[in-house]
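Database export, one record per block. Field names are fixed; values are copied verbatim from the stored entry.
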Amino acid sequence: MKPLTEAIPPSAAQPSRFGRVDAADRAEPLPRRASPLLGMLRREWLLTMRRRSEVATMLVFFMLVASLFPLAIGPEPERLRVIGPGVLWVGALLSTLLGLPRMFGDDFADGTLEQMVLSPTPFAWLVAGKIVAHWLVAGLPLVVLAPLLGLQFGMDPRALGLLVVALLLGTPLLSLLGAIGAALTLGARGGGALLALLLLPLYVPALVFGAGALTAQAAGLDYTGYLALLGAMLVVAMFLAPAAAAAAVRIAIE
């Protein structure tokens, strides 16, 4: 078995005739002169660009969830302003779930994860690169789209700014917690449903504090405590989640 850092022929890195990502693409080596984290980011970005339809699916799902609620609830501005933060947060949460099974699934299926574990680079760093790449693809676009969708709910500019700040703190937390769930369900039968059942209770605090900050702001109350708690959860998860996910992946491989 070749180590992950060994170069592969340029022809093996080309996508197949039908646009599919084969084993050689997923085994693309990390650049030797770049840091492992940046190398993993580059690799995951290239693979994502060959699966643009999956990214489009997450974004379309988020827009549909946020757009259908105003049609179902009615045009009352006051009611829309009340439910808007919760609807946008639930949409972001569910959209993040869609991309989690592929965080480790494809690399586990073709043996690339085993090469990563055997590489001299600490495996937790490689897992951290996968988490950051997942957030850049599945979390950051939601942060950009959220203010536009918030206009449907009659949110004022101050509320829209607070929404962006809350999502900037909350969506990385969703990716970090999601990495642990994806690693724990790696290789399990019916892993998608099991992943949702495992993660939804863990996502509840982020949902409560993220939407609660906007609710408090709308009521004229102090919302900084909600953001502080959300930020504290993010800091703790940044230190613990990559190591926990790496340990769970090792158990799944063994």
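Remark 1: DSSP finds eleven helices and no strands in the chain.
Remark 2: Residues 38-253 form one domain.
End of record.
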